[in-house]
Amino acid sequence: MRLKIAIAIATAGRRDVLADTIAYLALHAGHADELLICPARPEDVDLAGLDNFPCPARVVAGPLGLPAQRNALIDATDADVIVFFDDDFLPAADFVTETERLFAEQSNVVVATGTVLADGILGPGLTHAEGIALLAQADPAPAPSLLAPTYNAYGCNMAVRLAPVRLHRIRFDERLPLYAWLEDVDFSRQLAPYGDIVKASRLQGVHLGTKKSGRSPGKRLGYSQVANRIYIMRKGHMSPLQALHGNLRNIAANLWRSLRPEPWVDRRGRLAGNTLAVWDWLRGRVDPERILRF
Hints:
Shape: globular
Number of helices: 9
CATH class of the largest domain: Alpha Beta
Oligomer: single chain
CATH topology of the largest domain: Spore Coat Polysaccharide Biosynthesis Protein SpsA, Chain A
């Protein structure tokens, strides 16, 4: 019996980016059973782009914030596997087919993440055309698929078996608000007791890393970089060493690069947010939801 696969996209303030991604998926998302879009606001979706999608496509209402929107997407489907894509992730043409094969053959896998061939989040971002060109130039995925254990999925492409999610009432943590830094880590570790989390070599794609809209301002993101790790550590889903190492890495990068900031990153805002979160932590007041009051 084949598995029912749902593609799910949470989006905020990136209507044109999402429209390009949906047009791409219409050509390259064969074998998906449904497409679900959860926008932060109704105007974030061009409904005309869904009219001729090759499988049923619908818009799901949900509260503002990536975890809340992803929870709404989970609640909206009866699929066996939900594949979360960022609104700027372009999967290889066989991504969905390979996802179904992986979850059908590997009943122990509860979360799978793919190989990101290029990640624009590490620089100024990639255009849609550049992403398509990179996919066209990529070497064929290795066969058979190679599965490697991984601590967490990368949220830009994250396939989840929904049976254990429903059975154990696992949710994305809505106390990690807005862009929800590291919500993928927290969700993956909630599922870790119930099966394997893997990185799959045959699940490939390009993450454009579009940054100019829809994301948290520098101060908010900088606060989240520190506060979210501390919060996730306290839940037991990240070790103290992982939290310390990650926080020091982000703070050091923001401090160093604030001297000559990249034009596409608010380094000084991030550093201010880092500093405030550390001060709150020292005072016993660190709280991921504080960014809602900035």
